[in-house]
Specification:
It is a single chain. This protein is of the alpha+beta class and 341 residues long. The chain has 2 domains: 147 residues, Alpha-Beta Plaits, CATH 3.30.70; 174 residues, no CATH class. Helix content is 24%, strand content 26%. The protein has a 4-stranded antiparallel β-sheet with strand order 3-6-1-7. Strands 15-16-8-19 form a 4-stranded antiparallel β-sheet, with helices on both faces. A hairpin with a 2-residue loop joins strand 17 and strand 18. Helix 1 crosses helix 2. It is elongated and about 70 Å long. About 3% of the residues have low confidence.
């Protein structure tokens, strides 16, 4: 192998999703891979006190000087996602025909650079990078997963994520498994079956009630669910917090049937917040990888508004919510997940 090249083959574990795809047969794209790999590598260089300035493209401070070539082996399996597991309220229906889910057996990747020291550094980290990174749309929900190797998986997860759990059991459909566990953790389930949110139950132990109850108190027209269930509630009177924000803000609107509750950060500085939870699917195993980014939006005030009426509510403080403690609560009370130690 040339000292200027690094070549490897990727195994694809889950389909990658592309919106408005105009690249026939495109699975993993260099336009997404390189920025993510650059960011990851620079983070590792900085942690290791490696002077990477000579690795950069001239005139750029966060782009490393190498090129990527990607070759898909065989014809990708392509399908159109059209079920409720994939499409959320903010996906425009007309865009569905332009959305592709692609999966192939393997992909060949070639990295090229005249900077041989950079190639050597990339070789040190490339296996870890693909193990902890997903690609394409809904990557946090497990889509777009690839690996170069599958050795020491749990050790590597713990190396990069402070909190790692694993689903106790899985079915033949990883998509259903991820969808179900995430709903149980965050919002609960109120479709065909009824399951109280585990986040809600955990916050009750903290004497905190979540914002869904406050919404229905302030906006009585939303007080009944579409399936006729009364709002779930703690047994006593507690303080209210914008609890679900801890697991990610998908947008600024809370949909309640045909009515829309508009949610805005009081200081107009936050409109979206990526979930601190990433699902990683390796063969039949499903891992829950968690960072502590949720701490960045703790104790922030948000305004909820519907038809001219509004109220303010804060997210939990650091004394009121801890993601690791929450998942340990789930592990203790439900046979759903176990900690990876």
């Amino acid at each position: 192998m040339s000292k200027f090249k690094l070549e490897f083959t990727l195994k694809q574990h889950t389909p990658i999703i592309h919106f408005q795809s105009n690249q026939i047969g495109a699975t993993l794209r260099a336009t997404e891979l390189k920025p993510k790999l650059d960011k990851f590598l620079i983070e590792q260089f900085e942690k290791s006190n490696i002077d990477y300035k000579t690795f950069l493209i001239s005139g750029q401070d966060r782009a490393l000087d190498y090129k990527i070539k990607i070759e898909t082996i065989g014809k990708p399996d392509t399908k159109l996602p059209n079920n409720f597991l994939f499409f959320s309220n903010n996906v425009i229906k007309k865009d569905r025909d332009k959305t592709k889910m692609l999966k192939t057996n393997s992909i060949k990747v070639e990295l090229f650079s005249f900077k041989t020291s950079l190639i050597k550094e990339i070789e040190k980290y490339i296996d870890d990078f693909f193990l902890i990174t997903n690609f394409g749309a809904r990557s946090s929900k497990g889509y777009g997963g690839f690996t170069t190797k599958e050795n020491n998986i749990e050790h590597i997860f713990k190396k990069y994520y402070p909190i790692v759990f694993k689903l106790s059991s899985t079915s033949k459909s990883w998509e259903n498994d991820v969808d179900t566990i995430h709903k149980k953790l965050k919002s609960g389930i109120n479709f065909k079956t009824y399951y109280k949110s585990l986040l809600f139950q955990y916050m009750c132990t903290k004497n905190i009630r979540w914002e869904k109850r406050k919404i229905k108190q302030e906006f009585p027209q939303l007080a009944k669910s579409k399936n006729g269930h009364s709002p779930i509630d703690c047994n006593t009177k507690f303080d209210f917090r914008y609890v679900r924000a801890m697991l990610g803000l998908a947008g600024i609107n809370e949909y309640q049937g045909k009515q829309v509750v508009n949610i805005t950060h009081k200081d107009k500085k936050i409109d979206r917040f990526q979930s601190p939870i990433t699902y990683k699917v390796i063969n039949r195993d499903i891992y829950i990888l968690c960072d502590r980014s949720y701490q960045n939006i703790m104790d922030k005030e948000f305004t909820f508004k519907l038809k001219g009426k509004s109220f303010n509510i804060k997210t939990p403080s650091q004394n009121e919510f801890d993601l690791y403690e929450f998942l340990k609560f789930v592990e203790k009370h439900e046979n759903l997940i176990r900690e990876v130690k």
